[in-house]
Amino acid sequence: MSRVAEFLLRRKGGKGWHWTDIVTWIWLLGGLFVMFGPAVWLVGSSFKSPAALAEFPPSILPYVTQKVTVEGYDKPLDLYEATLPDGRKATLAEVRRIGIVSQMVDPQKPGEIIKVNIGQRTPVRQMSFAMQNYSEPFTHFDFVRYLWNSVFVTVTATLITLVVNSMAAFALSKYEFRGRTFAMLLILATLMVPLSVIMVPLYSIVSALGLFNNLWGVILPTVATPTGVFILRQYMLTIPDELIDAARMDKASEWQIYWRIILPLTAPALAVLAIFSVVWRWNDFLWPLIVLSRKELYTLQVGLSIYSGELNVQWHFILAMTVVTMIPVVLVFIFLQRFITTGIAGTGLK
Amino acid sequence: MGHIKLTNVTKSFGAIDVLHGINLEIKDGEFVVFVGPSGCGKSTLLRMIAGLEKPTGGELAIDGKVVNAIPAADRGLAMVFQSYALYPHMSVRQNLAFGLENTKMPKAEITQRIAEAARMLEIEAYLDRRPGQLSGGQRQRVAIGRAIVRRPVAFLLDEPLSNLDAELRGSTRAELAALHARLSATMIYVTHDQVEAMTLADRIVVLRAGRIEQIGTPLELYNSPANRFVAGFIGSPHMNFLEGTVESVQSGKAVAALAGGHRIELPVNGAKVGHGARVTIGVRPQHIAVNSDGSGIVAKIKLVEALGSETVIHADVAGQKVLVVAPGQHRLAPGTEMGLSLSAAPLHLFNDKGLRLDHTV
What we know:
The structure holds two protein chains of two kinds.
Chain A: H1 2-8, H2 19-45, H3 50-53, E1 63-65, E2 67-68, E3 77-83, E4 89-98, E5 101-106, E6 109-117, E7 121-123, E8 125-127, H4 132-140, H5 143-174, H6 180-189, H7 195-208, H8 215-219, H9 226-237, H10 241-249, H11 254-265, H12 267-283, H13 286-291, H14 300-304, H15 315-335, H16 337-347
Antiparallel strand pairs in A: 1-8, 2-3, 3-4, 3-7, 4-5, 5-6
Chain B: E1 4-13, E2 16-26, E3 31-35, H1 42-50, E4 57-62, E5 65-66, E6 77-80, H2 92-102, H3 107-121, H4 136-148, E7 154-158, H5 166-183, E8 186-191, H6 194-200, E9 203-208, E10 211-216, H7 218-223, H8 228-233, E11 240-250, E12 253-258, E13 263-266, E14 278-283, E15 289-291, E16 297-306, E17 310-317, E18 320-327, E19 337-341, E20 348-350
Helix pairs in contact in B: 2-3, 2-4, 3-4
């Protein structure tokens, strides 16, 4: 523990503070706040009741005003810390509020009404986790259905992506043929075409193939990624050609060379692409929204949009379900960090 | 089994001709070494025999059957690569088995062949390790093992020793020779190291710039190189070449004057040498004698390398560099002069085109 502290508090200036120490601390703390703040706020807010969400100023943790049941009143009353006109402080329950005057009562002596200016009272607050934000979507909405759709789309699309892209990369890295460089450049050029440009023609194709309102309509257009081909090709270029020659001498067919020699040796790059693909497909929103119009086919991200209706946005459900949909991606990042950093370092992509 | 014949084989990569009309016949059980400087096409030639490159022209036959159109795997050959090319994700056992599994061989026979090869090469102890966990020498054995289990009609070895350190190279060389004796299979071996070529080969094929310069047994090449290139390439340190002009030709005897004015008698052996012709006289460093009295060809000593058993002297004879390997130890100081004698030396005579003047020796 002391070593951790020593590491964290180590300064360039030795005993004193060098200006770089200060800049470093500000930079890192600022970064922590900017990057981690929204995530903390999201998780905290996902436990808030709709009323607490609407509160201003907002808080990180979910607080509610403590309530107390007082004899003679049907409903539980809000509890306040109030400063009485004579300067004493007391914990009182509010019966009603008229203008700027609050009529309060001591829970111990329910008979007597005390009038307090609303500026003189602060609510007694306690932390309370609104678990129903999580439980209700699970019971009342088709959350499990959406989850299954998302998992199916993500896993299938990732598997097909790996197979298709590695085949393309194998051909582009290990076979000499006319137009090889041109084919590679053409594939890379498609990186510059965003989804919004090809959305309409892509929709026509998917629709003509009868894949509209079908999960395959979400999966198939996404499986051939130029990024994937590029990552895998660059990696396969580093596999010595002599291995392939050796395999040819060993009477391996081209398929065996691909499946038994190249694929196992490309494992690190495949892992990187698999992680990217999982994250991409899991977070996909626009394309599934276009293709899927039947509720039972929705993926999680599309399903979440149900909670924002035309008249009423159910933020508490949206926040809670956003946390749930984040969990797999977060787990992927935690456990496969090493691959992700090599992937980002190797390709400059995130 | 293992008879390989090349007829007018050529290879071009685009507009670049790498091999120009190679004619070569390799007998069954022969150990043939392709030797030559980098880029001479020796590896390309081997890869063409293997089937990894297609010949641009000519005909390649194994055991009398033209194999130009037959894929590598079906030619019955096995290759040992310079980098060994072991599959890094497979154990040694799987590496050996891979080629056999692909031929749909029964499991029992695969096991038996692997056991046999492992015993022969003493790699039994690490059959279950990955190539990454082996030393260079062990990997090399596995690479040879992978070739042996195939029971090929011929082994093709592409600079198999170049990744080993000097000591291991020597012992592995001896093992290879023993292996060839035991298997009595055809072996084609590519190297740029003429020591390997000399020690291993039944016959050496010297290549330069895509052409065969000479084919012969190691001693044929050493004793009567067909041209200046072969003469310079075979033998270590390389042969000295002295430029001279023929001064007199008389009843089978010719005398030439060297650049420094010294006259020596030439071994014409019936070759036609014209008066006034410019010739190159080749003499191996080991054959030059140092005259203790300083008589003979005067040479200026540039550098003396005392190796203990012999002394290598770098000298200068009238502007031409001369290397002398004198047996034993000599007290010679750089900058001084010494006398050299060629009287006892076998001389090699080349014309101004670099071709040997007599082919009878």
